[in-house]
Amino acid sequence: MQTPMQAAEERAAPSAEEVRAQVQRIVTDPTFPGAGRCGSFLQYVTEETLAGHGKRIKGYTIAVEVFGRGEDFSQDDPVVRIEAGRLRRALELYYLAAGDADPIRIDIAKGGYVPTFTWVAAPVLPEVLASPPETPTTVVEGTWWRSRIVALASSAVLGAAGIAVALAWWIAAPPMMIEPVGSFAPGGPTLVVAPFSDFGGGPESALYAAGLTDELLTTLPRFKELKVFGREPLAHPPNASNQDVPVVETGARFVLGGGVRVSGRQVRVTARLMESASRAILWSTTYDGDLDARSLFSIQKEVADKVATAIAQPYGIIARTDTAHPPPDGLGAYACTLRFYAYRSDLSVEQHADVRSCLEDAVGRYPGYSTAWAMLSMVYLDEDRFRYNQRQAAPQAVERSLQAARKAVELDPENARGLQALMTALFFNREPQESLRVGEQAIVVNPNDTELLSEFGSRLALSGQWERGSGILEAAISRNPGAAGYYRGVLALAEYMQGNHEKAASEIRRANIQKFPLFHVVAAVIYAECGMTEEAEQESREFALTGSDYLVDLAEELETRLGRPEDRARILAGLKKAGLEPRQATDRPLAATVAESLPPG
């Protein structure tokens, strides 16, 4: 007997008229986003595909013909990727709820923009289930909202009282979680994004408020240390000002809210981060935009990026709040991430061992915690690149670092911290091209993560792209000046390598990571080049006091850290000028070793 699935597979493909009818069902359904450009995007790629122009559907053509970008559109503009992700999520939600009985399914696979149209087979239900299968906790948490939506849809057949009860149940229920459960640390920070309010000024303000909320729900979940929830609009409490952040009883520790006002061609956005338990406002800001100078959508994206960067990045508002006032389970896995960032801020060898032990325990208890694997990878790597608490047993530090990074990416391919760890481990495994390829991929995943941007800029610089690397480092540090000591040190080195010695000296003074041995080496080289003899001698003495053996077998070290032979030769000359004589563990002269690596002439 033929199954429904087999029948669906053998049936002729849906006709153009049937596909258009399905698109119309989707875009006119109340559950499909009314604001934004999902409908236009879907209709455009559908019509192009039906017309046989599938090969023409590229990011450039979509940007120009759907989003009104000019012919100078560059792939650096992420609008198409962002809107494509939003459309995929909207389609998924539609088919889980309102469209679960529709005859035709429309999908847009990741990696492209050409839709597919398939018949949907009716589900085959068993006649008898001896006992209901056990549902894993993660499935319950990931799919609770499906039953809520179905319940609300079916409540249309009930009276007004029934609808009121259903809506009250919806508001009291937990909000929708944006990302898979396994990406987060147990006990980590939770954030509800309340819909931004429309403070008036015309139809643009309502569109902007809805679009900004949606943009934030796209941007914030990319920070995997943070669990993000969405929430349908809630009524303001009686006598509450429009400026008040709505009270959201969800159990989440933080609430992000705000509002939009349009006056003529001016847009003003207010945003606030509130701690749920105390109702304290932890952070607030105002953004102003001019609609004559920029489009509504570009202003909307810029605001969402700035808000996300300010509150969600490492060393941002939420992380600083949790560091100052740890959550009740402060000894849990999430505490390890806070310790990791504290260690990264000053790179002391004493903290390294403690963080490594904590993270090893965390991944042992929560093997699906991708971010902990990523952080453990970077801590393992520091055994080799910084000579911290080295373990002699196999596998070696770089190999362990690669294994942990690959585990992080396997668990969550869109975890920017995992991609950062893999990029860094590959670089120190002497695979610079693959390292930078992964780095480029990571920046697409989360361009607002300044920790990632700083590390990527460092890898670019040390591979020989000093100018581009220093530009990215400067941009990242300006957006996140806290805890940037290590990256200021790399920026100082990049300026030194470009001949900008005064700027290099300025940056190395601001780095101030006294517990990190290599800081004193770089500082001594820069000060010596600037003729600051006393300062150079002081840094040389400070380096000697650390007891580091970095200057042993320096040729090997330089080959691992610097991509170009001429850069390695320049550092060697700078060390000699600073009075830091390299020490060879072998009998082979260091100068000869470096000289052999230089190109002829």
Describe this structure in words.
The radius of gyration is 28 Å and the shape is elongated. It has five domains: 4-119, no CATH class; 142-172, no CATH class; 176-324, Double Stranded RNA Binding Domain, CATH 3.30.160; 331-446, Serine Threonine Protein Phosphatase 5, Tetratricopeptide repeat; 477-601, Serine Threonine Protein Phosphatase 5, Tetratricopeptide repeat. The termini are far apart. The longest helix has 18 residues, at 79-96. β7 (254-263) and β8 form a beta hairpin. The model is unreliable at 1-5, 122-182, 232-250 and 586-601 (pLDDT under 50). The protein is of the alpha/beta class and 601 residues long. Strands 3, 4, 5, 6, 7, 8 and 9 form a seven-stranded mixed sheet that branches. The chain is built from 25 helices and nine strands.
Write the layout of secondary structure elements.
Layout: H1 4-10, H2 16-27, H3 38-50, H4 59-65, H5 79-96, E1 104-108, E2 115-119, H6 137-154, H7 160-172, E3 176-177, E4 190-193, E5 197-198, H8 203-219, E6 227-230, E7 254-263, E8 266-275, E9 281-290, H9 296-312, H10 317-324, H11 333-346, H12 349-365, H13 370-385, H14 397-411, H15 416-428, H16 432-445, H17 450-462, H18 466-479, H19 485-497, H20 501-511, H21 517-529, H22 533-546, H23 554-561, H24 565-577, H25 590-597
Helix pairs in contact: 2-3, 3-5, 8-9, 11-12, 11-13, 12-13, 13-14, 13-15, 14-15, 15-16, 15-17, 16-17, 17-18, 17-19, 18-19, 19-20, 19-21, 20-21, 21-22, 21-24, 24-25
- Mean pLDDT metric: 76
The number of domains? 5
Sheet with most strands: 7 strands, mixed
CATH superfamily of the largest domain: Putative neuraminyllactose-binding hemagglutinin homolog like domain
CATH topology of the largest domain, which one?
A: Double Stranded RNA Binding Domain
Amount of beta strand: 5-15%
Which class best fits the helix and strand makeup? alpha/beta
